[in-house]
């Protein structure tokens, strides 16, 4: 199964000598928190080129409403944050990765303050910062900006800092098609830049391309989150781990006909309740922490309550909170509700879960290195082991900062050591012409997102997963063999659906293989956690026949 996906190496045929060529020490693919922080670290010792798929502002980072978790108060402790992260990760976290991020995180946050970031303030607190508590955290250690605009403030700070560096070039609206390998080593990437395919030769390449939310019909992610980096790394021969672990956010605004908009869990941290269509608060029935339970617990509880009440959604109730404080604390949410004539002081806010964060990704070590020499991965495209089977809220921006800095420094050191490396300028790749009928890629994309939501979403079952694998395999035979010409208007859409099919195949295969429930992965036919057989990571590498099990470190 999945031969069409396994056999594909590059999305385009090419002859290197005939393409425009660029050279850099370190190439960073992606312009979110992880990519920009990596670029800044690498730029301390060499030249860096950053490719952004859209404008530099279009990233999951920019839209992140949650905050950054960091141990910055005397009463808090590194061990407490470590234990909270391990507990949320349901036995699959790599403790070394957790300790790195938790210990180095505070320094990265203070660094942002020095670069001009404006976080919410409270006099008398350490560094004058306001701290909030969120689900799964045993202490108030979350810093926010403008209440629910932390990601935007973080992105603006890093973009400003990167643009001020003479060693960093940023190319926007540039689509990375594939990372290039020669002799088993990554030597750069193919990218569509200003309508032409370019080769970018780099001594080290960092994937920071973000997540995979667009694989699902219900998603909090922007339209660019099509798992491009996951698919590129797979085609290049890198190992991908924990691909079954997809996190669903419990609360997105649910208005028929509109796109889903994230409602940060900090709202529940401030005291909001979840109620069903009858106005009954139901979370205490499911978990002792009620609305502050881990995200996977809350998401499944909402799905179950929707089923019990035969309704399409549930509600967030903030009517008992002071209206002025709510509007000040969550200005983006207040504006969003206003657009749909919802008055939070009087009305219930309709909510529904949605795909939010891709935990699985390129398997990397503590420096962000993949098992393909010269190729690094950071942020949502990577699987560092920090999150295990369930990401603790507000740890993702922290991971991007901590591992971004580490990967950037290490990648530049790798580039310096490879200073005499010769690039394969005569490299050529051919793809035979397709003999199969074309499928409508718009229809395939819509159908893929629907079946992933229904069958590989919050609840999973053997028969549905098997069916999904067969359907993806069928679509793959008629889509993965096509070459979408760069001059065509549908080229990017075609490349995206090829990447989406690749990542979806991996997620479905991993979910089918793991016959237990753990963290965000819930098998209704195997509802119990099974540490005896499944306290291990599943690594996938071409050809994708069976996974490589690896015990938790």
Walkthrough of the structure:
- Helices cover 34% and strands 18% of the residues.
- It is α+β, with helices and mostly antiparallel strands and 553 residues long.
- The strands form five sheets. Strands 2, 3, 6, 7, 8, 9 and 17 form a seven-stranded mixed beta sheet that branches. It has a five-stranded mixed beta sheet with strand order 18-16-10-20-21. The protein has a five-stranded antiparallel beta sheet with strand order 12-11-15-14-13.
- The longest helix is centred in the last third of the chain and has 23 residues.
Outline of the structure:
With 553 residues, the protein is of the alpha+beta class. It contains 16 helices and 21 strands. It has helices at 3-7, 33-42, 60-63, 78-88, 95-114, 150-163, 228-235, 266-269, 295-309, 323-329, 331-339, 396-417, 441-455, 462-479, 491-513, 531-534; strands at residues 14-15, 21-29, 48-51, 68-69, 142-143, 168-171, 174-182, 185-193, 196-207, 240-241, 246-253, 261-262, 273-275, 314-317, 349-358, 361-363, 375-377, 382-383, 428-429, 536-540, 548-551.
Mean pLDDT: 93
Helical fraction equals: 25-40%
The biggest beta sheet, please?
Answer: 7 strands, mixed
What's the β-strand tally? 21
- Rounded to the nearest angstrom, the radius of gyration is 22 Å
Number of helices: 16
Computed structural class: alpha+beta
Alpha carbon gap, first and last residue? 31 Å
The poorly predicted ranges are none
**So what's the overall shape?**
globular
Residue share in β-strands? 15-25%
